[in-house]
Structures are given as C-alpha cells and as structure tokens.
Amino acid sequence: MTSFFTDLAQQYIDGEWRPGKGSWDIIDFNPYSGEKLASITVATALEVDQAYRAAERAQPEWADTTPYARRTVLEKALRVVEEREAEIAEAIVTELGGTRLKAGFELHLAKEFLREAGRLTLGPSGQILPSPTEGKENRVHRLPVGVVGVISPFNFPFLLSLKSVAPALALGNAVVLKPHQSTPVCGGTLIAKVFEEAGLPAGLLNVVVTDIAEIGDSLLEHPVPQVISFTGSDRIGRHVATVCAARLKRTVLELGGNSALIVLDDADVDYAVDAAVFSRYIHQGQVCMAANRILVDRSVEREFTEKFVAKVASLRVGDPADPATHIGPLISSSQADAVAKLVDETVAAGATALLHGRAEGNMVSPSVLTGLADDSPVLRQEIFGPVALLLPFDGEDEAVRIANDTPYGLSGAVHTGNIERGVRVGQRIRTGMIHINDGTVHDEPIVPFGGEGNSGLGRLNGESMLEAFTTQKWISVQHGRSQFPF
What we know:
By secondary structure, this protein is an alpha/beta fold. The protein contains 16 helices and 24 strands. 39% of the residues lie in helices and 21% in strands. The termini are far apart.
C-alpha cells in the first residue's frame, strides 16, 4: 500500500503540512474494500483565509519570475509524476476505485497536460495593435489574474486538478485547491506534494481539505481569488456561478453531460459497438463525457443491439486492482443505490431491461435499457453509473432531434461510413465537442474543452487557458503630441 494516505493526510498551507483545525474529520475510504485509508481533520474558514492570503503574498514575485523559471518548475513536476507513476496509479486504484486501465488513461493525460502547461509559460505575453490616431502605439499585455480557486471532482481527481492548477501556475498565478471529499489525496494533497518536490515556492499552491458544512461559501466569497475554476455537477455549478456573479468574479465551469453516440445506417456496426461500450462504461460510467444515450438507426438496430448487449454482458465486474477488471466500484454506496434505484424505476415505468444491473455495496453491474418513452425523465439527466440507454431512430433528422432533446451539451459522437456526412450531422448537435467515428470520451491538451447549456461556461485547454487564467491590459503610447478639441 502506498504511503500517500499516511504522509499526505493533512492540509497544505503556505508551504507547510499541518492538521486542520475543524471539529470533525473527513474519512477517506477505499470504495471497493471499504478500508479506511486516512482521516483528515477539516480546514476551517479561517484556514481558507490563510491559504488565500498566502497565495496573495506569494503571487507577485512568481509573476515577476521569467517564463523560463516557471517552465523549469513545470518540467520538474512532470518528472516527479513520471518517477512516481506506479505509486500514483496505485493511489488512483485505491482511493477512487479506478481500474488499472483507467489509472493509466488518467496518468497519460495528466502528463500531457503538464507538458502543455510548460509550453504555455513561453507563449506570447502581449501584442501591438494599430491605432487610427497618428503616432499612437497600442500595447495589449497578458497578465495573470492573481489568485485562482480550483474545486475538483472525484472521478478523475488527479487529472482534473492538474488541468486547472498547472496552467494557472504556468501563467503566473497562485492557486488554492479544494479537492472532493471522497478523493482528498489524489485530487489534492498529492498534487501539492508533486509541486513541492518540483521546487514550487511556498504559498503558490495551497490545498484545503474541507466541506461546505464547515466553511460555507467562504472559498467562493473570499475577496482574494479573481477566478474560480469548478468541475462537478451542474447543480453545484449553478450555485458557484450565482455566488461568484454577485461578486463580479469570473468562473470557469466544467459541468455534467448527457452525451449521445449516434450510429447511422452506414456505420461500421462492430466498430460502433466497441466505441459505444467504452464510451458508456469507462470508469463505471462516472465520466461527464460518457455516452448516456446510444442512438441507433432502425436499419441496423437489431444487429447493433445484439452485439452491444453481448459485449456489455462480457465485461468483468470486480476488484479494480485486478488488471482484468473492466468495471469497479462506484464512489459510494449512496451513489450505487441511487443508480440501481433509477434503473428499477425506469423499468417499472415501462422500459425494457436487456441487462438489469444490481447494486451490492458500492458495486453495480451494468444495465442496458431500451423501449423508453419519449418523455422518460432518465433521457434528460446525467447518469453517473454503468447504465446505457438504447434509442432507435429513423433518419438523420430524428437522430438530431433526439440528441438535442437534453439540457446538456458536452460531448457526443457520430458513426458513419461517410466522414463528411458525419461532420454535417455533428454540426447540428448542440455540444461543445463532437467526435466522428470515435468514442465520446476524449480530452487533448491543446483543443478547447467545454460544453453548452447545463454543461458549463467557458473552455479549458490550449489557448483557452489564457482566457481562463489571464487578463488583458491596454497601454497606449502617444509618440509626439495629441491634438485635443479644447
């Protein structure tokens, strides 16, 4: 067992590891075995203030360092992850019930995002724009916003914390990170340890392990952070947006999804089955980009359904530490019970269960449902569990209508034998991302990532990080003398 859960079960504020001062503890459990991994006394609102004030003090000097010096820290952080990759993978499997495959997938992306953050440090820091005024020079400078608050989720905690933390630091900001209570180490204190070993100066990254029951909205309302980057549910995202908007604070919100994978009549059915099974059941379906809804043209519905159900039925459910396991535990028994109840209620309302998953503790076996009524509530919500909904359609127009019949708009996929046909259909789907002849679960460091509607506000990755974590300042220089009207 990795030592992370004993060594890193603390708060990390102003470069110091210390216990929280709250009156109760967050208990970190292994969701598969139920083993207690760590007990962390929660941080108080006062400690949140101390973290933000430490970040505020440290940030100006960091912003004044050369981009090459900041890049060196990012490069060292990457080397730390590479050197400790086996330990980190073990922690991902242990703390969040991720399979070996999932841990490898998360770590591969985490390393790519660290590489991209290093590149960001050397990007353009400004530009000169023309002016209609004779002799005037317009300089537009890119400056760090100052301090960024980051709130990360439990499903890909190491990656999704780094995804905001690393570019924010690269661009000259300081950060206060609050990980999800279910993954305080992989999503929080482990990130702090990586940057501490990389030589990041004290105060620039602070991690507070706490809960809204202890601190209320102090993480959002605090006057120091200028940007809050939140990844999580749309319900909490709305609250974050409301609190921050009242204080004219910028937000980047990466929220839930209800993605559709569309199989057109000319698709390669075997390939579409493989893409759909992966897109729905990766990490037990606890992925915002997961293909909740699988839309299949009636002309290939029977063939697709038979092959899809057979493949899903072959998935191995069990210990995530076993490399042969495809589906591990959900994050908690309450989440598992909620998913099982949703399946039962949907079947009771008239849907047909081609596979009917059951909950046992945190484990939920996969379900495949079909025959859903058009007004079934399950069609318009995010299902954070191993449940696939199969929906037949007649022609492209109906596929587009069904795909767009959701308040979400994050990802999606279209399978077809004609690439340009797929692109045309994809352009009609209201999502931030769509993939032709592929799965719905993708993330790349330089491509804008984000959604429409209830799936969030703003974009991350690549140049979008500049919009997220910097501000612009116009400085004009008048060469010669201006003429004033009075």
